[in-house]
Design brief:
alpha+beta, 41% helix, 10 helices, 355 residues
Length: 355
């Protein structure tokens, strides 16, 4: 039994295993040692998760009061692995000298605000769940993750990755794994796992766009922009606008994400390529948002949120099932018109058949 209502903890990291695998084989021990330690640590935590999680009692939470406020607490793990660590900033308290603490606090707030203001959702579970995060996890830890109950941030190794609190979309991505956990609870394998990752990328990007007041055409559509250290040939971990172009570095390799089903990657690694094939639904969302225009969280995001929380999305859904539900959601909310056309054309462009 856990404090999140009885669900088994999930473990979802922002840096895909294939990147860490590549770094772990590097001839420079300064690079390989950090990556190998991160991989080993992640593997030990990942074995505790269940590929198929237990559904929550209700997929649709009650609408949040307009006065709802986040309940944030930031802890310092002090380069250890015992969570949560020492409390260093609580809700409503002034900023502290530690920039990582303040960035984590702000990122949790930005995520809470997007879900509240755009979708009337009161925190991750829809019922005011306190938002906890630990910074300075382990030493040179090259990742950030949601463990089913809280956020955890590493400081990065300083050569490939910087502090993982530096990208608000990363914070939003990981916390959205919690939203998925409390709603559709998509299985973390194959296409449903890729959808799980994609939904987190979608709302992570929307949280960044909302905090910056950007329209779809102003957004960079990058996930993890700012995480790569100076000297790394790349802009981010993933690109929703152009999957497969986020990085191309001798140490990291080339971004393997496909943009269409024509290049779908069949693999048993990374739970069936969940971090790789998520590029396909990611690109579909980008195409929908771009076609509709304006603020992407208002219509495109609403369609995706309706599907995630509507109770009809099966935990083992594939891309076609998800795409079909987005068409249905667009029709139900906006009627026949530009929104439905945008959704239909986007899925067709990425090679996913919808009915």
């Amino acid at each position: 039994m856990t404090s999140n209502g009885g669900l088994k903890p999930v473990f979802c990291t922002i840096v895909p295993p294939h990147i860490l695998d590549r770094l772990a084989q590097h001839e420079d021990p300064a690079l390989s040692d950090s990556a190998l330690r991160t991989l080993q640590h992640d593997s030990s935590l990942r074995t505790r998760r269940r590929v198929t999680a237990v559904r929550t009692q209700a997929a649709v939470a009650a609408a949040a009061p307009a006065t709802s406020q986040p309940k944030r607490t930031i802890y310092d793990a002090q380069h250890g692995s015992d969570l949560p660590g020492t409390e260093v900033r609580a809700e409503g308290h002034d900023p502290v000298q530690d920039a990582s603490v303040n960035r984590a606090y702000a990122g949790l707030g930005a995520t809470f605000e997007l879900y509240l203001k755009a979708y009337e959702r009161n925190s991750i579970d829809g019922n005011g769940l306190p938002l906890n995060a630990s910074v300075h996890y382990e030493t040179n830890y090259d990742n950030a993750f949601w463990n089913g109950e809280q956020m955890v941030f590493g400081d990065g190794d300083g050569q490939i990755f910087t502090d993982f609190t530096s990208s608000v979309d990363v914070i939003g991505h990981e916390l959205t794994h919690g939203v998925t956990q409390y709603t559709a609870n998509l299985e973390y394998y194959g296409q449903s796992g890729a959808l799980n990752e994609s939904v987190s990328d979608v709302f992570g990007s929307l949280i960044k766009q909302y905090s910056l007041g950007q329209t779809a055409d102003q957004a960079d559509w990058l996930i993890g922009q700012g995480l790569l250290a100076p000297g790394v040939h790349g802009t981010a971990l993933r690109s929703m606008k152009a999957p497969g172009t986020a990085y191309d570095d001798p140490r990291l390799g080339k971004d393997p994400q496909p943009a269409t089903m024509a290049h779908y990657v069949h693999t048993n690694r990374d739970n069936g390529g969940v971090h790789t094939n998520s590029g396909i639904p990611n690109h579909a969302f980008y195409l929908v948002a771009s076609a509709i225009g304006g603020h992407a969280w208002e219509k495109a995001g609403q369609i995706w949120y309706d599907v995630l929380t509507g109770g009809q999305l099966a935990s083992d859904a594939d891309f076609a099932a998800f795409g079909t539900l987005t068409l249905k959601a667009a029709q139900q909310r906006y009627g026949a018109g530009a929104e439905v056309d945008a959704v239909q054309k986007a899925w067709a462009q990425v090679g996913v058949r919808t009915s």
